[in-house]
Design brief:
The chain is mostly beta strands. The protein has a single domain, classed as Immunoglobulin-like (Sandwich), CATH 2.60.40. It has one helix and six strands; from the N terminus they run ββββββα. Strands 1-2-6-5-4-3 form a six-stranded antiparallel β-sheet, with no helix packed on it. β4 and β5 form a beta hairpin. The longest helix is centred in the last third of the chain and has 5 residues.
Length: 92
């Protein structure tokens, strides 16, 4: 049986000149097209918006994703537990 080498606490985003993005802590890619990428991370869903977005590298065994294109926005859609952000918790 193979051992997993992922470290679930190692969530990190690195943006280089708004043209290249590396994300560590990726669990799954939910959606990918030229203008929007949605990934499930260890800390919730991350939406990457831009244009000309393309995948350079995806390493599921380590949870690392690298992409390029014009990066316009990064936004988390929910918290770590997937039950919504701060606003959702306040409105309960």
């Amino acid at each position: 049986m193979a051992e997993s080498i992922r470290n679930p606490s190692a969530h990190k985003l690195t943006v280089e000149e708004r043209k290249r993005l590396t994300v560590c802590g990726v669990q799954d890619v939910d959606q990918f097209d030229d203008n929007e990428v949605i990934v499930q991370t260890d800390l919730g869903k991350l939406v990457i918006a831009g244009s000309g977005l393309h995948l350079i590298r995806l390493m599921p065994e380590t949870g690392e994703l690298e992409m390029a294109g014009e990066i316009r926005a990064l936004q988390y859609r929910s918290g770590r537990n997937g039950k919504g952000g701060a606003l959702a918790r306040l409105l309960k």
